[in-house]
Write a structure and sequence with these properties.
The chain is α+β, with helices and mostly antiparallel strands. Helix content is 16%, strand content 46%. It is built from five helices and 17 strands. Strands 9, 11, 12, 14, 15, 16 and 17 form a seven-stranded antiparallel β-sheet that branches. A six-stranded antiparallel β-sheet has the order 5-6-3-10-13-8, with no helix packed on it. A hairpin with a 5-residue loop joins strand 1 and strand 2. The N and C termini lie far apart (64 Å).
Length: 249
């Protein structure tokens, strides 16, 4: 199915949102809870599938929903359609500060692999599926980098990066990154997990036990502040429960 051709504008700096303009009859899909606002004339409905295959059967939709549920994703994907007679807009934002990346899937080879929590929205016709790294080391030790999403299509898709977005173009070299800092990569990039240095470095270096290695030819998107790191730092700096109870009966 050919993706709908949507127009968009990314608004803001540190806490961005993407405003998508839909012609009459056009639809955009998004993760549950990502919608910020919508104009009159746009109707939305939660569905089990992404709508990329209109002939997809019920069992196939249920299997895809089950895979999303097992990986912690919402079972449903929300479809926003312009049912009016004029152009209308709907906006989406991520749940924490960062940058939104607009992907032209046709220019990127039709497929992008991204972290399971980074997908925000896409034009109808984009196929969204859960993918697991096939290598044993990545499967057991990949952490956030283990469960990935595959986005396939020829239209626009939008993913979110926490903090500052970093775009790297690899031409045969290898890049080693914290698994949580990976946002996505294009076809042609090989992804694996390796041990983070010596045993001493693994235990006391503070950089985690394993790193993601990305090599080959293609584009890699990274984030400076993955949500897991932000949450850990908030928890570490928060007063303890015992401290909060001082002065209480």
């Amino acid at each position: 199915m050919k993706s709908h051709e949507v127009d968009y504008e990314i608004i803001g700096e540190a806490c961005q949102l993407v405003e998508i303009e839909l012609d009459p009859g056009e639809t955009v899909i998004a993760e549950a809870g990502a919608m910020n606002y919508l104009e009159e004339g746009i109707e939305f409905e939660s569905k089990m599938g992404d709508g990329s295959n209109p002939d997809e059967g019920l069992m196939s939709k249920m299997f895809g929903a089950a895979k999303r549920k097992l990986t912690g994703e919402s079972v449903f994907i929300t479809h926003f359609s312009n049912c009016g007679s004029a152009k209308k807009r709907v906006a989406f934002s991520a749940p924490y500060p960062g940058s939104i990346v607009a992907l032209d899937m046709a220019e990127l080879g039709g497929r992008v692999i991204c972290q399971k929590d980074s997908f925000l929205a896409a034009a109808l016709g984009t196929k969204i599926s859960v993918t697991f790294n096939r290598k044993l080391g990545a499967g057991f030790f990949g952490g956030e980098g283990f469960i990935l999403q595959s986005l396939e299509g020829d239209g626009k898709a939008f993913i979110h990066a926490g903090g500052t977005l970093i775009k790297k173009q690899l031409t045969g070299e290898t890049l080693r990154v914290d698994t949580g800092c990976l946002v996505g990569f294009t076809e042609g990039i090989n992804y694996d997990i390796e041990r983070a240095g010596s045993l001493k470095s693994m235990l006391f270096g503070g950089e985690g036990l394993f790193l993601a290695t990305l090599s080959g030819h293609g584009t890699v998107w990274l984030q400076s502040m993955p949500f897991s790191r932000l949450a850990d730092r908030i928890m570490q700096s928060a007063p303890s429960a015992s401290g909060n109870s001082i002065g209480e009966d």
